[in-house]
Batch of 2 targets.
Target 1
Amino acid sequence: MNRIAVYPGSFDPVTNGHLDIVGRAAQVFDEVIVAVSKNSGKQPLFTIEERVEMLNKLLTPYANVRVGSFFGLTVNYARLHKATAIIRGLRAISDFENEFQMALTNKKLMPEVETIFMMAQADVSFLSSSVVKEVASYGGCVGAFVPALVEQRLRQKFNKNDQ
Ligand code: ADP
């Protein structure tokens, strides 16, 4: 049986924390679909196309990982792609409440899909896209937090915004 997992998120932009989780998921599942959610409540920095493009470039080393995007419910996307699992990363305790609620809601909506939580390696587990954006917006170095491609794109965005 081909075990497919969907890893949904905003990925605005992808960080080394996200990539750590993708690497773990790719070892456990036959196929992983990293799915960029189009329904972010927050004003995103990168467009969906930019986020998908960065992910595609960064995830080429993984033969069993592909990138997609979706609008609406994660469970509908999972059903469409015959996924049996939704991957979520857990950082600090602060993630727990939201994730707990979402996992149980999704279980009600689609009982045949399981939410699997993974924890990133300690040195990247504190990272969030919003902190990375904040540091980059003030000209701080984010080289330890994101891949070089993302660092470069962040620099371009904030330089452009300054003009
Ligand atoms: P969302 O808006 O759906 O939370 P994010 O892009 O912020 O989208 O996160 C997508 C998933 O990746 C979430 O499950 C989040 O907890 C997880 N994640 C993000 N950063 C990290 C990290 N540094 N370590 C572990 N998991 C992470």
Target 2
Amino acid sequence: MALETKIYKNLDPKEITELGSRLRAGELVAIPTETVYGLGANGLDEVAMSRIYEAKGRPSDNPLILHVPDQASVTPLVKEISPTAKQLMDAFWPGPLTIILPKSDNVPLRATGGLDSVAVRCPAHDVCRVILQAAGVPVAAPSANISGRPSPTTADAVYHDMAGRIEAIADAGPCEVGVESTIVECGDDAVTILRPGGITDAMLRQVVSTVTFDEALSAPDVAPKAPGMKYKHYAPDGAMTTYVGVPKLISEAMIEAMEAIQKEHEELVSQEGKTSIAKPLRFGFLINEEVAQFLDIYLADLTVPFEFVIYGNAADYRGLAHSLYSSLLAFNEAKVTHIFATGVPRQGLGRAIMNRMDKASGYNVVNAVPKRD
Ligand code: TXA
Ligand code: MG
């Protein structure tokens, strides 16, 4: 039977205490963080964590991140905190950095998908941290979406996927960063990035000498060290193409693709006649200002209905990170059939963004650069 999902909006001390008690008691509570909304459960309670997997339809070998309000709360969860791990916490916590550490016996295997390591993170979000304090237990929280769909960056998006499946949602407005935390494995004065995120390799290099990326991030056939990275993720309902390169050439490539799609659709409809089951076309654009300028005139005459998001200029990585998931979800709502998005160079935050866009578009990335002959 469907649960009643209560939405908390005041988030005053009374509500925070109530949310903390619900978490401690084994209920599922969606919590805001600076990256995306999490689907929280008591990280020491196996039954509560099993309910996370059920609510999301998440594969059971995909381990959870334990969220804590401060460094001190990590101690009982791990065998040891190495000097490098401590330096990372000092430098980046609270913030979007998840650190993999050897787990202690206090952490149930349900949290770690059977691994002997545990992922810990201290979010930079005031409401989140007071909820974690009120809970008084580590809070296991994956992104609060149905597995495989874009992660929610607003409470509305959480409600869309999780209404009737969880007990409560703490609505603290939109998330700032928009893409999930960076996940690192620690060595001695070295880290390996398992998932790129808000804390970039350049930022990590200011603290540890050696920063490498998990090989699997650039080789789709290698098994990733973070089990969750192997699954299909962030997929919108429409077919998505990501374009990178020169704005004018990107706009030309998009126009060419739109014409091919329209032609194919017309042929299908004319073959099938009135009984056609072809879905009506609807386009979605998530693009930068530069490309928008070149597309303007074409779109003024486009007969296919469309949705349009300009996230900022081509160098606005933060704008794109912030708008990515919310735009994909808005396109789902509008029943967009084809998505045209512009990406960014794979550096800094661009690595995290392109990692998500690669997956969202099923690695359908067009490089629109001048042809050399
Ligand atoms: O920003 C975030 O990290 C968000 C918010 C809610 O905090 N959470 C999030 O959780 O993205 P989730 O469950 O969607 O992703 C967790 C990732 C998965 O790829 C999982 O495989 C990896 O963390 N992970 C968890 N524990 C691990 C471990 N012990 N070793 C390697 N990877 C681990
Ligand atoms: Mg996720």
